[in-house]
Amino acid sequence: MRDALLLEQLYFQGTILLALSICFAWSDLRYSLCSMSLSTIGASALQGQLEGDEAFAEKRIPGSKHACVYEVAFLEAVEKLEVGKDDPIVVYGLNDDFGASKLAVERLQSAGYANSTALDGGLDAWFSAGFSVEGEGEASSRVPDGRYQIDLEKSVFRWTGRNLFNQHNGRIALSEGFLETQHGHLSGGSVTLDMTKMSCSDIKDEKMAGYLIDHLESDDFFSVADHPTAGFELSDVQPLDVVGPGDSNLIVLGSMQLRGKKKALEFKAQEVFLGGQYGLQGRFKINRTRFGSVYGSGKFFEKLGQHVVNDKVTVSFQLICQVGAES
Predict the structure, then answer these.
(1) Which of 98, 128, 158 is the last residue of a domain?
(2) Could you tell me the pTM of the whole model?
(3) Over the chain, what HEC string results?
């Protein structure tokens, strides 16, 4: 789930303040913002239109409600907040480095909310000017130290295999696993995959999908009859400099076990702690030939032509733990 920007509404002396604050989601969002001439208002000028001096730990202007600015139904949500087309509206984001205010004003003005403007400098400027904020306190982004069982219903492990002209993808069920944290960050973990519960997502014909899964379970690929489980161990974690929310923030070292063989593993991952849930997501490639699966490999067979199958299988995962459900 990565950045979702929330629209919040405040009513003070006839002025409607729409605040764009940040929360975290698991999917990677990328937005293309159109250029526009953006109306702005200074923090001091806005304070002159507002009342309330109650301050709390979380940086949010008092009295806010929210609706998601990037939802398709954004304007409908604004209407439900009983915002009139002629009402003076001020929107704000964290600061001018983010595009939430620009996008919100653009959408509002296009929908006829002609008196929409943006708080110059956003919430950072408001707070720096010494004006009041409120909230329940900013939640810590550091997960408490512990050992947490992976939620098997919410977690997912995906695979993608390719040949010269096509690719297939699907999932493999997780049977058990845990993540360990120390000093507020990932320190280790283990994931076990149930190879007998492999599925194909892209082939809609059940019979054809069944043929593919049978082949993948055979000795040509994963030899599931002899090796019904696979998995990976996380033994060392190194921090990464992060460009922004949604970027990988860890390098994870460990090992992958497949077809009864264990090989070293290294990949980038992102950890997030939010709302009592700790999540780890990552992506890496497995060279299946290192584990003994050589079917269709150009390294082992000559003149395969269209029958070549890529040696590397791409896998991605999202592991979710409920903090407090320690093992």
Answers:
(1) 128
(2) 0.65
(3) CEEEEEEEEEEECCEEEEEEEEEEECCCCCCCCCCCCCCEECHHHHHCCCCCCCCCCCCCCCCCEEEECCCCCHHHHHHHCCCCCCCCEEEECCCCCCCHHHHHHHHHHHCCCCCEEEECCHHHHHHHCCCCCCCCCCCCCCCCCEEEEECCCCCEEEEEEEECCCEEEEEEEEEEEEEEEECCEEEEEEEEEEEEEEEECCCCCHHHHHHHHHHHHCCCCCCCCCCCEEEEEEEEEEECCCCCCCCCCEEEEEEEEECCEEEEEEEEEEEEEECCEEEEEEEEEEEHHHHCCCCCCCCCCCCCHHHCECCEEEEEEEEEEEEEEEC
